[in-house]
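Example 3.2
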Amino acid sequence: ERAIRPYYQPIVELGTDKIGGFEALARWHHATMGEVAPERFMPVAEACGLMSELGDHLLRTACRDACSWPANTTLAFNVSPVQLRNPTFGLRVMAILGETGLAPSRLELEITENTLVRDLKIADEVLGSLRAAGVRVALDDFGTGYSSLYHLKKFKFDRIKIDRSFVESMVEESQSATIVRALLGLGHGLGVSITAEGIERGAQKDALVGEGCDHGQGFLFSRAMSASDAAALFEDAGRPAGHSLQA
């Protein structure tokens, strides 16, 4: 468990190129296998019944790291179906926030639609209690699941994240550009912030800025980095994010 740690990918304010927060992404550096992708070890942890323990460890570590960032910087954290199905998940999140001292308003839990539909009743209760305590909730990979409009209405998300599959083709394909424009209009009409994922080229960023997208993340700005590298970005308070970030 201790060999698995969170790395942090910057989430950039597209209008100003400043870092608005980081998304915590699990990384495992194995002594012999090297870097092991989360797609390989997360399902194993889930199958072995270790997902809740691993999730608590990653969240606790990430909250501690986030406490060293500026007070207006947010931490985005992905929630697995196993975690959300556990009725005690909300209590454990609040306990970790209390233990680490991170303000609830600085934590944004990312939920996919496929995670939600596993058990809508428990998800509604758990997410409702967390939002009441000040924790923000984001709908991840928006546009790739099912019953999107229903979930937007029912769960009252604070943010939706446009899936990278639409972003990567929006410059070349008018259909993708139209979908992104519609998603942005829908989100802003509901008063929800929008983050575009998978931005890799300047043309994609320019198109998103032109459409009024709030935040973005992707290799154009930076790959995920260690906690020390993330903290170092704030040593020079005047340093902008965006193209000055190194992968």
